[in-house]
């Protein structure tokens, strides 16, 4: 059952989305040597289409293009109003080299992760255009690399180029933009053929059909119909840590391998792979629920067990399109006893990229990697004991009442009552908004009881949702003069929205310490240095700004630099 759309839509302030173009069919043109990626996507493919351009000619916007914080102005466009009464303002940032996705590897994943990291505080959401061939791998990799993600990152592509008369590119991109700009889904997702999948659950199932992707072990997070996009909020992952957004780059794909078991496979073949120089991890695609031939005199099991003894992590995933690896049959049980980790219902793409991510983490050991491979980090596998909450039908009035009751409880600082309401509504009431667009987190930002704010942050409340006046919870906490609330929100990755900065800077003249804590560059203000912000990543130079709409937000100081 899905929740009504009004609750978590960003209707009100205009959403800002950065479209990152990596290549793929979606931006390809015909050439004598076949389809090749082409530059100038905004001008050639988007500007002439009324669905992508309302003709209002918004000014250029800044995009941070490197780790020094260098900013460049790029032209932007605005969509006409959606059925949710919101518009999306977006710009397109093309990578220097546009690739067919069959050539994208860990270097490309790093480039995408860094671009998102550099521009995180400037945008409400990100859309990544990518070829379909290796799209499921990139989605999975990014889902692990983007740690404590608080904003939507939606990857899409197409089977036919946008510039071809009959194509799926137009609807895939428009659907991605609408979802990114209207719904606070803080996950790496894949939007294709009117469905939004969790990125690390998706797999390519057709080389030619428009329905090129599926996520056989996880229902879609949202589906677009002729009426609207229905989000299944109960399936959406929510933040559960008080942590900043950060990225882990340079996944270790050079020391992992993937091997598909087949009838008659020889233990020597498997041994040869396991003895590859420097190998640290292997994904084994096994039969059915995780079975593999034990080999003559258990030779295969011995080869696997020996490699595990040498510190190689071996993870078993099923060759079937759906279902899970679990040691129910004797051969599967034998593998498990030998130390092979059951990858449960992970896709091969998720298992391989997760292994590469865990091996790249500082201080990783074979034991820690094996342990984390079997648990869900980003919703990539279904843990057996996890219960799925389903909301009964027809409860909208009750939910609205509960939201109002929550408002009173928060204002009174009544934690007990807050917990009572959350027991009934589960966690997803936290991203619901009242008539003025305030979520429970907005209310808690000025609650007399700081632990209510902490409780919401630990149970999935988004720090990035803005009310109808465009205010974030952080802005409200600072306006109310509450340093503890401000500090806690900042710790959770909250930052002032670019639109809030001019007013925040005015407030900062009265209360510099408090507003500095909220993220205003008070020192820069004192020096009258409006275009520059010093952060952990160096000086970010605003330069001349032709943006009369005011998208001149600064890159906030994030506590962690990209690795
Ligand atoms: N070869 C293309 C790519 O992955 C396929 C596509 O995008 N449909 O880049």
Automatic annotation (TrEMBL):
Residue ranges for the region (Disordered) are 534-563
Q: Which Gene3D superfamilies match?
A: 3.40.50.40, Ankyrin repeat-containing domain (1.25.40.20), L-asparaginase, N-terminal domain (3.40.50.1170)
Keywords for this entry?
A: ANK repeat, Hydrolase, Repeat
- The reply to whether Repeat figures as a keyword in the UniProt entry is yes
UniProt ANK repeat ranges? 436-468, 469-501
Taxonomy, superkingdom = Eukaryota
Single Gene Ontology MF annotation: asparaginase activity
The residue ranges of the Asparaginase/glutaminase C-terminal domain are: 255-364
The protein's matches in CDD domains, at most eight in alphabetical order, are given as:
L-asparaginase_I
* Biological process, per Gene Ontology: aspartate family amino acid metabolic process
Entry-linked Pfam families: Ank_2, Asparaginase, Asparaginase_C
Q: What is its EC number?
A: 3.5.1.1
For the L-asparaginase N-terminal domain, which residue ranges apply?
16-235
Which portions of this protein are annotated as coiled-coil regions?
none
Q: Which family does it belong to?
A: In the N-terminal section; belongs to the asparaginase 1 family.
Q: What is this protein called?
A: asparaginase
């Amino acid at each position: 059952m899905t929740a009504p759309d009004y609750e978590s839509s960003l209707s009100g302030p205009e959403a800002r989305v950065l479209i990152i173009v990596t290549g793929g069919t979606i931006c390809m043109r015909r050439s004598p040597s076949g389809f090749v990626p082409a530059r100038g996507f905004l001008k050639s493919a988007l500007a002439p289409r009324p669905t992508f351009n309302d003709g209002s000619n918004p000014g250029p916007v800044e995009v941070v293009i490197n780790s020094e914080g260098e900013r460049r102005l790029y032209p932007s466009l605005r969509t006409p109003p959606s059925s949710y009464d919101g518009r999306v303002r977006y710009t397109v940032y093309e990578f220097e080299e546009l690739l067919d996705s069959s050539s994208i590897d860990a270097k490309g994943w790093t480039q995408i992760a860094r671009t998102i990291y550099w521009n995180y505080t400037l945008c409400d959401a990100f859309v990544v255009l990518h070829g379909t061939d290796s799209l499921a791998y990139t989605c999975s990799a990014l889902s692990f690399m983007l740690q404590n993600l608080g904003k939507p990152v939606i990857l899409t592509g197409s089977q036919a180029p946008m510039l071809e008369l009959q194509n799926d590119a137009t609807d895939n991109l428009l659907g991605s933009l609408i979802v990114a700009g209207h719904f606070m889904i803080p996950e790496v997702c894949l939007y294709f053929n009117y469905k939004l999948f969790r990125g690390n659950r998706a797999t390519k199932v057709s080389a030619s059909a428009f329905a090129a992707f599926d996520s056989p072990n996880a229902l879609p997070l949202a589906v677009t119909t002729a009426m609207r996009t229905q989000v299944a909020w109960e399936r959406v992952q929510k933040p559960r840590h008080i942590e900043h957004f950060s990225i882990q780059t340079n996944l270790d794909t050079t020391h992992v391998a993937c091997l598909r078991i087949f009838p008659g496979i020889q233990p020597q073949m498997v041994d040869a792979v396991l003895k590859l120089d420097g190998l640290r991890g292997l994904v084994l695609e096994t039969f059915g629920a995780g079975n593999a031939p034990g080999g003559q005199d258990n030779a295969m099991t011995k080869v696997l067990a020996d490699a595990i003894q040498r510190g190689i992590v071996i993870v078993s995933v099923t060759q079937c399109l759906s279902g899970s690896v679990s040691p129910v049959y004797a051969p599967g049980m034998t593998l498990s006893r030998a130390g092979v980790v059951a990858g449960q219902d992970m896709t091969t793409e998720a298992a391989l990229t997760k292994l590469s991510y865990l091996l790249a983490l500082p201080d990783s050991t074979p034991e820690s990697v094996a342990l984390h491979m079997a648990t869900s980090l980003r919703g990539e596998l279904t843990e057996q004991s996890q219960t799925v909450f389903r909301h009964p039908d027809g409860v909208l009035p009750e939910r609205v009442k509960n939201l109002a009751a929550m408002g009173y409880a928060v204002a009174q600082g009544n934690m007990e009552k807050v917990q009572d309401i959350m027991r009934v509504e589960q966690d997803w009431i936290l991203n619901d908004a009242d008539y003025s667009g305030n979520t429970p987190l907005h209310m808690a930002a000025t609650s007399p009881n700081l632990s209510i704010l902490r409780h919401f942050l630990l149970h999935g409340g988004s720090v990035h949702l803005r009310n109808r006046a465009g205010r974030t919870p952080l802005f409200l906490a600072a306006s109310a003069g509450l340093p503890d609330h401000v500090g806690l929100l900042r710790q959770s990755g909250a930052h002032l929205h670019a639109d809030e900065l001019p007013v925040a800077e005015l407030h900062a003249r009265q209360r510099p310490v408090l507003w500095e804590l909220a993220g205003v560059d008070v020192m820069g203000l004192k020096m009258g240095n409006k275009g520059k912000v010093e952060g952990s990543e160096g000086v970010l130079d605003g330069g001349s700004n032709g943006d009369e709409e005011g998208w001149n937000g600064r890159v906030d100081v994030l506590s962690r630099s990209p690795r």
